[in-house]
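Sanity check

After download, print the first record. It should look like this:
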Amino acid sequence: MRAHRLLIPLAAFLAILPLLLTGPSCGHDFDFHLLNWLEANTQLTHLQYPRWAYTPAYNAGEPRFLFYPPLSWLIGAALTQMLPFHFVPIAFTFLCLTLAGLALHRLASPYATPAAATIAAILYTLNPYMLFTAYERTAFAELLAAAFIPLLFAAILRPHPTIPAIALPVALLWLTNAPAAVMSSYALALLTLVRLALGAPTSSTASSSNRVGYRAKPDRLSLAITSTLGTLLGLALAAFYIIPAAYQRRYVAITMAIIPGMSPADNFLFHHTGLTEDAIAHDAVLHTASLIAILLITATAITLVACHSAAQRRNLQKSLPTSTSSVPHSSQPYRDEWVHLLPLTVLAAVITLLLTPISLPIWTHTPQLAFLQFPWRLLALLAPILALTLAIALSRIYSSLFPLPSSLLLAAILIPVAWHLFHQSCDTPDTPEARAALYHSPLGTEPTDEYTPKDADPDALHPEGSSQTDPPFWLIPQSSPVDTPAPPTAAPGPAQSHLSLTLSTPETLILNRRQYPLWLVTLNHHEVSTPEQQRQDGLIAIPLPAGQNIIDLTQRHTPDELLGLALSFFGAIILLALRIRHPLHSAGAD
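Expected structure tokens:
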């Protein structure tokens, strides 16, 4: 039965239908992602892999492409090349929802009937947190990550986990969204630990698992080694992003991502941060996320209880004599329900705990966990647990029925409610057309706090109440303070990569480009060392002698980038060798 290949894209299309009819939803992260797509498209069109964003900080730029995972902005750039820009965020949303549904179907298929797996996949596609992310937050990278979390669950819950099956979703998550990758990596570790605690399977389980071509489930040592090596291989595949991002974070104000209001301590369920306008807006979003969390937690608890009860009944029936046993036939090839039910139950309980203030020490002391910012982001892990357990619970109901009526009913209930609650209207300056026009203008765009170079003050580039932006370059006498601003009448624009200036007296050249280790500055073909005296705005300042001066500004590859590329190259070779050697075990089952 292949109905899911039609019904899941249909559900995704119904979710974007309001966007097609009324226009995109201009959510919280809308502008950020649109700028990424425009920047990446421009640079890729010129055969340059994006590392530096040129238009932020009013053309002074920032190294956001070194820190923001590449997969979402590469896809966005491709869609920008193919479609009118108005439809790019809509198409991106459709793609993410479709992939998420198909991934959940792959996760659920071994445990449920085809119809039940399809219903669960559509529920996952249209669940309230997914639509909250799509409509209100427009967090497009997190939306894309929702397609890879079920694949990671499928890899570790399968009877015999394999290194490639674990490595691929780990790599995809790290290349898509860092918060999703962090929490998924911890989830993988927890699921592995619970499976290790469960021990080796029974012989009956092993024989049933052989029906689909798997070997018997591994013993503790084999599972531990497989999970560890799969994780390491996944990290190696993504090393070309991870290593530069991890090493170069010392050069930017990355801790701005967890300032008060953005830290886990200020975002537990139903927390109140204050009475200022910003605090009220923050608390409104948190209240919505909290209600979604309560809904998903309750639904997940119900489905887990139902699945545990059903599993206990089946175990009891199996213990009866064959003549009195009434165990019904099922399409499930995996008979040892505890292998997936107990790990998922533990993970759901831990997620619930982490949404409450009692877990603050965990958020504070667990490496990198604070950078999730919002504990309710963990709902991205809870949603596939709910969908999978629902698929198992529904298997006896949807054994042979075609799931189209239930699919349409789910869409009719969830989409209008989510659209009414989560849709964000677009002011004229925020539409895709307006953002594209601003991007192509000489004015530049706003900076991103956490990607601002450490010694640069973003407010110094565009003082509050001022409409002035800096020109591509200007000259000041060397006797003047290095922070001397640009002439107010100069036309704005980004710094050129090549300048030739003839000076009658020594002067200091100010380039509208922030200093960063990525940049190689040469004067008359000799590298210019970073001057000891820095500008408050972080722009490059170069003392020039009298006479002819040729200045070149080019990107260079730092050692950490080269190391990351080498690790990813070798990781890809290892992955290819593993898949060639064990094609059946790395392919999985649908």
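If your output differs, re-run the checksum step. Summary of this record's structure: The beta strands are 473-477, 498-503, 507-514, 519-523, 526-527, 539-544, 547-555.
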